[in-house]
Amino acid sequence: MNLPEFALEQGEQRHATWSVPWSDLMMVMFILFLVLFVFSLREKERLVLSHRSTASIQSVTSSNAQLNMLPLYEVLRERLLGHERMLNVAFTEDASIVISLFGENFFNPMSYEIEHRPGLLLSKIGHAISVAQGTIVITGFADDAPPTPQGSRTSEQGAWEVAALRAAAVAEHFVHQAGINPEMLIIQARGTAHPLLPDFIETRNSQRRLEIRIDPDQPSSAR
């Protein structure tokens, strides 16, 4: 394409100039500032997410678990109302529910047999917790047994075994009477090593107890 040529007057010099209106220049500066501002915000957000502490993530997870377990806790409190002398229901900070069954109300000394009346209460508990999605841990605690004759099995050995048998008896009761999946159950024994009260003779009945702990369901990624 042939462009027209303009003759220069004598003495006139050719200068390359670029003139931009002031309003256009301000608009370009504003757009540049806006782009930099948005970029800085995105960078800060990325840094915050990358430095997010494990404790804060666990706190959110724990809060969600508490919300999920709270309805079951309320159901247990309602259904077990009036049995406060026989048991206690607690909601722990880690969103677990712990049901403590006290002493002579459920087991005779050094016995793991479940009588008819406490069996009815255990069935009520079992039906309530059958909807739980997490693990159910049943722990037997034995009271201190009377001294045994020399040469026979020690009282500590007998107490440990009885504690395990009590936990197993309750687990079996839950499976057969409440339809709880046995794969959700864990049984363990503590024997006399973890007393609820100082080990005086008059408090041995209180050492004879059992705890049922319902843990919240763990996300598949944590299993």
TrEMBL record:
SUPFAM superfamilies: OmpA-like. Keywords: Cell membrane, Cell projection, Cilium, Flagellum, Membrane, Transmembrane, Transmembrane helix. Pfam families: MotB_plug, OmpA. The keyword Transmembrane helix applies. Residues 94-218 form the OmpA-like domain. Its main location: membrane. The chain crosses the membrane at residues 20-41. InterPro entries: Bact_OuterMem_StrucFunc (IPR050330), MotB-like_N_dom (IPR025713), OmpA-like (IPR006665), OmpA-like_sf (IPR036737). It is found in: Cell membrane. It is a single-pass membrane protein. One of its GO terms (cellular component) is plasma membrane. PANTHER family: LIPOPROTEIN YIAD-RELATED (PTHR30329:SF21), STATOR ELEMENT OF FLAGELLAR MOTOR COMPLEX (PTHR30329). Belongs to the MotB family. This is Flagellar motor protein MotB. It comes from Desulfonatronum thiosulfatophilum. The lineage of its organism: Bacteria, Pseudomonadati, Thermodesulfobacteriota, Desulfovibrionia, Desulfovibrionales.
